[in-house]
Design a protein that fits this description.
The chain has 286 residues and is an alpha+beta fold. The chain has 9 helices and 13 strands. The chain has a 5-stranded antiparallel sheet with strand order 11-10-9-12-13. The chain has a 4-stranded parallel sheet with strand order 2-1-3-4, sandwiched between helices.
């Protein structure tokens, strides 16, 4: 029986095209599903002609990704990643809560909802500190504060952003991480690739902020850390961002449940898109 794969997307990027092409090359039945052009029944009360063994979730918007995944799951479709994994990874506080509960090392972090407690957090952590949104990607709306005055300015600016999540102040220690971080890519129960993201001009190391990617060696500690992280967040295809803490060693900074991988393939030569589709094919048979 030929596996039927859907690729759910909003914008057809290189990643989605590569997944589609490799699925065709493997002889699978594959369909590109533009999430803005379809409806998804909740439960079995509305008719749908679509039936898939696996849906690869590739929406850019976290809101669209989570809610379309919930709808797909309500009619029995297997979605990679699951709504649970997407919900956890989308909320950075939820992510750190799950990781910390499972004894996975994370940056020292505290949460506050007003200025004065935020200043107390900074005094405890020591300046500089990093103020992050609880959701979002590509390094957006992340700020460093080097003293009380800068922290006041950052938090005041956040009050003018019309988003309820800006009422939550997530404040972390600033980690001196050798001008780089490590993006570790997990597919199923395997760490398939890793790269250093290096930025000597800015402390934020996301690729969207101008970093350069080179291959990273996957040592046993990185592998075990990434696989344990994937397990506790219920993830199957994940991009896990790891910092090299000068005192604590490896710490998990964030988890991405709908990771891009074009730069990872360019840096490592590893066919990550093929690994993902082969994994989808393998679970379609279960």
């Amino acid at each position: 029986m030929i596996a039927r794969i859907a690729i759910a997307y909003e914008v057809l990027r290189w990643e989605e095209k590569s997944l589609y092409n490799v699925a065709q090359d493997l002889g699978l039945e594959v369909e590109l599903v533009h999430l803005h052009n379809v409806y998804i029944p909740m439960g079995y009360y509305l008719h749908t002609n679509s039936s898939y063994d696996v849906v690869l979730q590739r929406a850019i918007s976290h809101t669209v990704a989570l809610n379309s995944t919930l709808a797909f799951e309500s009619i029995g479709f297997k979605v990679v990643n699951s709504s649970t994994a997407i919900a956890i990874a989308t909320n950075k506080i939820w992510t750190l809560k799950i990781l910390a509960q499972n004894k996975i090392p994370v940056p020292r972090t505290a949460v506050s909802f007003d200025l004065e407690p935020s200043l107390r957090i900074a005094q405890l952590l020591g300046y500089p500190v990093v103020v992050k949104p609880i959701d979002g990607s590509w390094g957006r709306l992340i700020a460093m504060a080097r003293d009380d005055e800068e922290l006041r300015s950052v938090l005041e600016h956040r009050t003018y952003i019309p988003n309820p999540s800006m009422k939550v102040n997530m404040i972390q220690e600033f980690i001196k991480k050798f001008d780089r971080d490590i993006r570790v890519f997990v597919v199923g129960n395997e760490v398939v690739a890793a790269m250093y993201r290096i930025n000597r001009d800015h402390w934020i190391t996301n690729m969207a902020r101008g970093s350069v990617a080179i291959p990273a060696k996957i040592d046993k500690e990185i592998e075990e850390l990434a696989l344990k992280t994937a397990k506790v967040v219920n993830g199957e295809v994940l991009g896990i961002d790891v910092f090299e803490h000068q005192e604590q060693g490896y710490v998990v900074n964030e988890v991405n449940a709908i990771p891009e991988f074009k730069n990872l393939i360019s840096a490592t030569g590893i066919p990550v898109h093929l690994k993902i589709v082969e994994y989808a094919k393998s679970i379609a048979k279960r």
